[in-house]
Amino acid sequence: MIFKDRHDAAMQMIPLLSSYKNVDGVVLAVPRGGVPIGYDIAMAYQFPLSLLLTKKIGFPGNSELAIGAVSLEDEVIDDRFDISREYLEAEIKKIRAALKERQKKFMGDRQPTDLKDKTVIIVDEGIATGNTMMASIQMIRSKHPRKIVVAVPVAPERTAAKISGLVDDFICVHIPDEFYGVGQFYDDFTQVSDDEVLKLMKEAERKGHSV
Question: Taking the model in full, what pTM does it have?
Answer without folding.
Answer: 0.92
